[in-house]
Amino acid sequence: MPTTSRRPIVPGAAQRRRRALALAFILPALLLLGALVVYPIGYSVVRSLYDSSGDHFVGAANYTSAVTDRATLTALRNNALWVVVAPALVTVVGLIFAVLTEKIRWATAFKLLVFMPMAISFLAAGIIFRLVYDADPHRGVLNAVAVTVHDTFDHQASYPGARPRANTPLTAQPDGSLRLPADEPADGHGLLLPMVGIAPTALPADARPAAVPAPQSAASGSSGSSDGLDGVVFLDFVPGGGGEPGRPGSGKKGMPGVEVRLLGAGKKTATTTTGPDGSFHFAGPPPAGATVVLPAANFAKPYNGVDWLGPALVTPAIIGAYLWIWAGFAMVIIGAGLANLPRETLEAARMDGAGEWQIFRRITVPLLAPVLGVVFVTMVINVMKIFDLVYIIAPGPVQQDANVLALQLWLVSFGGGNNQGLGSALGVLLLLLVVPAMVLNIRRFRRSGT
């Protein structure tokens, strides 16, 4: 007869001792959890029902103020933008980096470089990107690159602040250009266009002493001749004084790179650019009624890049800094998922003639869906409480344009508002927004058996 084993009966006293021992081990963790999590949450809920002083019960008034305040609504809108954009970007870029680590030779060095920002605090990363986004191209890396690329394709000199000398025929137009009257006489010396308003040091390095135009034929009756139209644009200023006003002379330099247009009957007939000595020449006699124009672009401010931290771009710029920090984290998690993919499935697809893009889109990504979901939801939880990057990177004048709930909570409670009641209400709202993502993440972990 086969014998059946029975589980020994544990006496009630022994069972109680086991429970007491388990409780003794769990109690420190429960006390710590209660002190650091449960009590602050409970106190915040209670405090949110009182006014700023904490003495008068106001019920849901703080919550009403929170959802109707313009600054809070801006913070909610920016938080929504963060939730939609940042987790998706981090997940996609992390996936690309993880796939690249399996394709490139120096995978270890690549992983180190991408993951390195995770070792930097958000405070340090914010300071770094505050400098990267600086509007001054001499300090901001991005604007230095933008200015370099712009100036590579646009060589036109710019003289911001330059204006014609008084009592000269050049007149300013509403669009910022300078125009000569039609058929302006050259007084036998070509067109003399004296300019002031800029320092000699503002001239390009290749500027040469101003040229004296060759005398024009008096037969033409104007500044033109049968050989064409000559002129000179020059800085009518000599350091220390001297020289005849309105005339080129010793110590006066030409203004190179100035665009000069010849207009006839209201239409552009010719365009030229001044040389290092400021001289210009139009071939052939000018048409009747022609006039010379210096376009406004000659006097516009030089290109100084993009206002990355302006109201329009400050939030995308901060999201870029966030991506730089967290892409390494996503790469490592997704890379671990890639390492566990069944290689026989990938090899079978290759043997059946599938391309790498087909394998990636139809096999790799579907098999990685649980890992990608964990990374995405984790990033959602993370961006919901983003604070330090926004606080550090966004300049004071545009901080409200980049405002998020966690920053608004701090500003209302400690950053000058001193209204802990309203701040507690914002904290409770932030908790309620984060809880669904946390529950979703916990369910994913349970389904995956981790």
In short:
The protein is of the alpha+beta class.
Structure description:
The structure is a single chain. By secondary structure, this protein is an alpha+beta fold. It has 2 domains: 240 residues, Orthogonal Bundle (MetI-like fold); 137 residues, no CATH class. 48% of the residues lie in helices and 10% in strands. Strands 1, 4, 5, 6 and 9 form a 5-stranded mixed sheet that branches. It has a 5-stranded antiparallel sheet with strand order 2-3-10-7-8, with no helix packed on it. β2 and β3 form a beta hairpin. α4 packs across α7 and α12 packs antiparallel against α13. The protein is elongated. The protein starts with 11 loop residues before the first helix and ends with a helix. About 2% of the residues have low confidence.
Shape: elongated
Q: Gyration radius, to the nearest Å?
A: 36 Å
Q: Which whole number gives the mean pLDDT?
A: 84
Q: Supply the CATH class of the largest domain.
A: Mainly Alpha
**Number of structural units classed as domains:** 2
Q: Which second-level CATH architecture of the largest domain applies?
A: Orthogonal Bundle
Please identify which CATH superfamily of the largest domain we are dealing with. Answer: MetI-like
Write the layout of secondary structure elements.
Elements lengths: L11 H36 L13 H8 L1 H32 L5 H9 L6 H11 L8 H13 L9 E2 L6 E2 L5 E2 L11 E6 L27 E2 L2 E8 L23 E6 L2 E7 L5 E5 L7 E4 L19 H26 L3 H9 L4 H12 L1 H16 L3 H6 L11 H9 L6 H29 L2
Parallel strand pairs: 4-6
Antiparallel strand pairs: 1-4, 2-3, 3-10, 5-6, 6-9, 7-8, 7-10
Helix pairs in contact: 1-13, 2-13, 3-7, 3-10, 4-7, 8-9, 10-13, 12-13
